[in-house]
Structures are given as C-alpha cells and as structure tokens.
Amino acid sequence: MTYYRSKAVISFDYRLDGISIQRVSQVHDLGILFVPSLNFSPHIDYMTSKAFRALGFIRRHSTNFSSANCFLALYNALVRSVIEYGSIVWSPYTTVDICRIDRVQNSFMRFTGYCLNIPHPPHDYGPVSQVLRLISLSVRRDNFDITFIQRLIEGQVDAPRLLGELSFRIPSNTRLQCNFYIPTNKSNFSRNAPLIRMMHNANNHIDY
C-alpha cells in the first residue's frame, strides 16, 4: 500500500525474490485501519460498527439490570474500550466523525436511562450522564492526548524521535502561558496531525 495525499499517485511494482507483492487498499496495523490517504473515517466506520455490536449484546442481556454500576462496567469493558483504543492516532476533527462516535455513547445512555428510569428530555442525555458520571468522549480523547505528551516528555514513553518533534516555546513574554509552539498550517489535515493536535490540547489545558 502506498500512502499519498496528492492526486498524482506514484505506483511501483514492488517485488520480493522475483515475486510481485500484492498491493492492498487498506491494512490493519495494531488494531487501527489505515488507508492510502491517511483518512481515518474508514477506521471510525469499522470501530463504531464493532462498538454497536457490543452494545447490542449488552441490550439483549441486561434489560433486567437495575444497577448503574453494572451498566457502566459492561459499557466500559465492551464498548468504550473499542471506541477509544488508539485515539491518539486517529482522533477525529470533523463534526461528522465526532458525531458518529458520540452516537455510540448516546445510544448507551438512552438505553440505560430507560432501564434505570432516569427522567430526561428527548435527545438530552445530560441527566443520564450526570447519574452515570460519564464525561463526553471528545473530552476524554483530549485528556488522552495530554497524558501521552506528558508521559513522552517525562520519559515514560520511549520514543526519542517523537520527543524530538515537539516544539517547545521559549517565552519572551511572561504573560504568555503556552508551553508549545504551534506552527502555521495551511490545511485542516496538517493542523490536526497527532503531535500538532496534542501540543494544541496541552496549550489549552488549564492545568498543564
């Protein structure tokens, strides 16, 4: 598979011991689906479908449950673990992809609110999330970004090449609280590249 962002694709016939290597259009690497354009929408499709199947299993076997802790344990183990795995790589930045992922948690809260008789307005899952103490998935993804970059700086993540890509800001103004320099990017794709996104989230975090 060849990764590219331009329309002009350089296609080369790679051979190993005289045998042509088959070219594929997608590949799973450590549980994440990669495509040539490095667009993670196909991975989000795959991931949300898998999460909804797990959520269907919970619905079929827990309709008589009356404990919020039981629902949360099942959701965290079988569903949320799926839609958060590797998020520092594929974290979405388009509204469409963000909403597709949020639909999974909203569906869980709708089902749990019904089973536990938690009153809430239609399509407003705020009361349910308060009872279950669930925070939004986007906030959790931002927290994962900040945790990763902090562990990278502290040496808990052994990735010197990634560490060398961080752009620390040398303050010339004491009122400027940003720790990282964010370069100017001309496209949303480059603006939301993993390390750029992590540095941006760290700059915006009140306690970082």
UniProtKB/TrEMBL annotation:
It comes from the Eukaryota. PANTHER family: REVERSE TRANSCRIPTASE DOMAIN-CONTAINING PROTEIN. This is Uncharacterized protein LOC112692014. The gene is LOC112692014.
